Amino acid sequence: MKSIRLVELAWDDSGATLAHVEAWGPVSTATMETIPADGQDVAFLTLGVDSDTVANVRADIASRAAAGQTPVLKSHLDTLGITAAVQEWATQ
Q: Coil, strand, or helix at residue 38?
């Protein structure tokens, strides 16, 4: 089971809207939930992979960006479980 709830809206020093959400979900499966806040959607994403995998993907993206290559590849999203999470979110 997963859930996301808008707790409050706040504003930073430059006037940008901040959404304070309360969210929870499984950590072993990539999942995504959204909630409207001030005319936009706030997303809560659980990756469902270990911290080493996240660090490796982040380092690869940073390296690709520094080399002037396309930074984010579909394989990065797949490795993190983001592709599957968005697909499940869209079809639920």
A: coil
Cα 73 from Cα 90, distance rounded (Å):
21
Q: Which of 22, 17, 16 is nearest to 35 (CA)?
A: 22
Q: Give dist(CA 49, CA 9) in Å, integer.
A: 30
Tell me the C-alpha distance between 41 and 56, whole Å.
28
* Cβ-count burial 64-88 (b if 16+ within 10 Å, e if not): eeeeeeeeeeeebbebbbbebbbee
Give the whole-angstrom CA distance, residue 71 versus residue 6.
32
pLDDT in tens, 50-70: 999 999 999 999 999 999 999
* DSSP codes of every residue in 39-76: TEEEEEEE--S-HHHHHHHHHHHHHHHHTTS----HHH
Q: How many CA atoms lie within 13 A of 70 on its CB side?
A: 5
The answer to whether the predicted template modeling score (pTM) of the entire model surpasses 0.90 is no
